[in-house]
Amino acid sequence: MHIVVDREALKEAVNQVSKAVSSRTTIPILTGIKLTATHEECILTGSDSDISIQVSIPAQRDDIELIKVVKIGSIVLPAKYFAEIVKKLPAEHIEIEVLENEVTHIRSGSTEFNLNGLNAEEYPRLPQLEEDQVFSIPAQLLKSLIRQTSFAVSTLESRPILTGVLLKLEEGLLTLVATDSHRLARRSAQVEVNHNLYLENVVIPGRSMNELQRILEDESDPVDIVITNNQMLVKAGRLLFYSRLLDGTYPDTERIIPSTSKTTLEVETKALLAAIERASLLAKDSKHVVKLSIQEERIHISSNTPEIGQVFEQVNAHHIEGEEIQIAFNARFMLDALRVIDSPQVSIQFTGALSPFVIKPTDHEHMLHLILPVRTY
Amino acid sequence: MHIVVDREALKEAVNQVSKAVSSRTTIPILTGIKLTATHEECILTGSDSDISIQVSIPAQRDDIELIKVVKIGSIVLPAKYFAEIVKKLPAEHIEIEVLENEVTHIRSGSTEFNLNGLNAEEYPRLPQLEEDQVFSIPAQLLKSLIRQTSFAVSTLESRPILTGVLLKLEEGLLTLVATDSHRLARRSAQVEVNHNLYLENVVIPGRSMNELQRILEDESDPVDIVITNNQMLVKAGRLLFYSRLLDGTYPDTERIIPSTSKTTLEVETKALLAAIERASLLAKDSKHVVKLSIQEERIHISSNTPEIGQVFEQVNAHHIEGEEIQIAFNARFMLDALRVIDSPQVSIQFTGALSPFVIKPTDHEHMLHLILPVRTY
After folding, report:
1. What is the rounded (10 degree) CA torsion for A5, A11, A13, A17?
2. Which residue of B has its CA nearest to A275?
3. Confidence (pLDDT) at B24
4. How many CB pairs under 8 A join A and B?
5. Does A69 touch chain B (CB under 8 A)?
6. How close A110 gets to chain B, by Cα (Å)?
7. A314 CA: distance to closest CA in chain B (Å)
8. Which of chain A's residues have a Cβ under 8 Å away from the Cβ of B114?
9. What is the average per-residue pLDDT within B259-288?
């Protein structure tokens, strides 16, 4: 392989595929980035075997030549060093030439590196996916859906399926669900589906979702999502993002979402968030317990750590309906939920001090958070 | 104590004194911030016994009332919680009232905290300093002097005196020196001295210098520096910064600075810095060894880690004089020095492959860096 490539284009591509490369892998070749030059493009690949990212740099973009291919071919270069080198090279163009024994000569301005590469033949092949289950969604909407759900996945390996985000698709309605069995986040959106595509029990690792969220541009261009038995592929322009799916059956979470309510209140999202942030400053036990009660049309929030002190908050509710309630919950769960709700007001529906309660934005029906209370009263 | 204080003024003062508070102290009361309200001001104090910071909030500033004192007095509040609480309080004013048993009531808007305080009588008193050895220096100049020297202090406790920065004052010339015995940084500046003040062997802990550098505003207002036998006090407006001095005799570093040179070169600071940054990417042994040689009026820089690869750099010198040289050194030492030199060009003076070499800006005589080479050739 022998190419001359535009530095900025290479830097961007290396940055993107590096996100899939882990330094803790047990497979030495996966510490590298694979480069493949054809006459049309240069393809970069990074992978930790769970997630793989592939980016192609076209030979030309907007009439500007990005790559000059002297000789086609492939090489795997150590990701950590290659990324740092590319970032610091002095000139606009970078010449990359594979010499004998995978030694790779990198030249830019008056700087020359010889980097020991690895044989690209030994790099694992990416899965070849049947593309019959495909739907489209704007990149920024997908980013929102992930941000608003994936924080709720379990971090414990005791129930591996809960470390993933459930993806469902029915009649064009895409729904993501995440739960760690103490709280749950659910978010839906209408998406573009060609055929009457129906998906259930597609469970994507939470870490994959977070990486995908980070790597996608915040733009309205649609991305295509391909689902197979054990893989998801997201196609965003010249970037391909692969993730394996989790094995197992995701629990039926719909049945734990209460359909009735004994107490309902509506409140400014930011005012409630700020009050709970302050209350959580003194909620220093392991469960970060904060108490909430309703008295005289006002929400009272309090917290207490005997050796440090107490806090008392009052927040005006717009609307309170139903029975009085005293309830205690983990402040972190409430903060996580309120922070991803972009709507100015939320409605909270309680069904008793020991039953899960539901938080929803007041301006649409596409998001729901559920939190299990803590027994203290 | 019972006061109502402007939130922004309190937030700023708490931020500043918090920098002296360590959570790792073995003296429980030092995990707190001391507040003292008089009729004229509210004084906040934080200390880790090495460094103490005191900030006073005046009753009024620019005709705006910052403090209303209902009752004078003192209290010590847990720094970690108090700082977080102040940052998050909702209203413009904060009411602080000490109740029984040092329980302190903090009220702002509809938020109320009760925080367990400690008896201010038990807080250590700050040293009372004789102010007969004083000089003045603009804050931003002092910041520069510290930034350009303190990185070179030793981090090893084997020679404790080298963990400090030496401060000398002679005929109005202030000089700071730091060395870890492998490299040395020296920086001077003319300062304002009323009498013929002469200071030698004043050694300030490197950590104190770094904290001072961070806390000083980047402005041209002068700060006063008071030196006693075992304390330094820096007065910057309403902020007082105390540091203990190190015991012991600082070594005579002047005698190791070579006065002659066998090879001299002049080069663009940034070009040399960039080349050594790149070379250091592959200088991965424990000593970060980079080699430098001069051939045909050009500086050649290289580095080699067999299992990863090699790098070769060329940098144009403006001027080369004297013998050819091949020398090896720790890239980190060179990077540290070049990064604090604000001048566009540096001059480097070598006296042989195994002798210390000197780096100076070409446009003034007030800064010098010295680096001991590494034996490899």
Report:
1. 130
2. B111
3. 85
4. 80
5. no
6. 6
7. 6
8. 309-311
9. 93
Identify the DSSP state of B374.
B
Asked whether residue B165 carries a pLDDT value surpassing 90, the answer given is yes
Backbone angles phi, psi at A256, to 5 degrees: -90, -5
CB of B84 less than 8 A from some CB of A: yes
Count how many residues are written for chain B. Answer: 377
Question: Any residues with CB less than 8 A from the CB of B221 and at least 6 apart, and which?
Answer: B138, B139, B236, B237
- What tens digit of pLDDT does each residue of A14-70 get? 999 999 999 888 899 999 999 999 999 999 999 999 999 999 999 999 999 999 999
Give the model's pLDDT for residue B132: 87
- The distance of B283 to chain A (nearest Cα, Å) reads 11
Burial, A47: exposed, middle or buried (Cβ in 10 Å; 0-12, 13-18, 19+)?
Answer: buried
Please tell me the CATH code under which domain B257-371 is placed.
Answer: 3.70.10.10
CATH code linked to domain A134-244: 3.10.150.10
User: Which of A84, A308, A314 has the CB atom closest to B281's CB atom?
Assistant: A84
Whether B111 and A277 lie within 8 Å, measured CB to CB: no
DSSP H helical ranges for chain A = 7-18, 79-88, 139-147, 206-215, 269-280, 331-340
Chain A within 8 Å of B110 (Cβ-Cβ)?
yes
- Range scoring the smallest mean pLDDT among A333-347, B43-57, B240-254, B272-286: B272-286
Do B113 and A309 make contact, defined as CB atoms within 8 angstroms? yes
For the domain B2-122, what is the CATH code?
3.10.150.10
Express each pLDDT in A278-321 by its tens digit.
999 999 877 899 999 998 889 999 999 999 999 999 999 988 99
- Residues B178-213 have pLDDT tens digits of 999 999 999 999 998 877 899 999 999 999 999 999
Distance CA B8, CA B13 (A): 9
Average pLDDT over residues A315-331: 93
- Closest-CA distance, B108 to chain A, in angstroms, reads 10
Q: What is the mean pLDDT of residues A115-135?
A: 93
Which ranges of B148-261 does DSSP label H, i.e. alpha helix? 206-215
- Nearest CB neighbour to B112, from listed A103, A111, A312: A312
What kind and span of H or E run contains B263?
strand B263-268
**Residue B110: which of A113, A115, A313 has the nearest Cβ?**
A313
Provide the pLDDT for residue B237: 95
A86, A114, A299, best to mutate vs chain B, most B CBs in 10 Å? A114
Could you tell me if A100 lies within 8 Å of chain B, comparing CB atoms?
no
Report, as an integer, the average pLDDT of B119-147: 94
Nearest to A88 among B113, B277, B312 (CB): B277
Superfamily name with CATH number, domain B134-182+189-244: DNA Polymerase III, subunit A, domain 2 (3.10.150.10)
Query: Which among A75, A109, A70 is positioned nearest to A93, based on CA atoms?
Result: A109
> Residue A377: what pLDDT?
52
- Determine the residue of chain A that is closest to B307 in CA distance: A116
Residue ranges matching CATH 3.10.150.10 in chain A: 2-122, 134-244
User: Is A309 close to B81, i.e. CB distance below 8 A?
Assistant: yes
pLDDT (0 to 100) of residue B208: 97
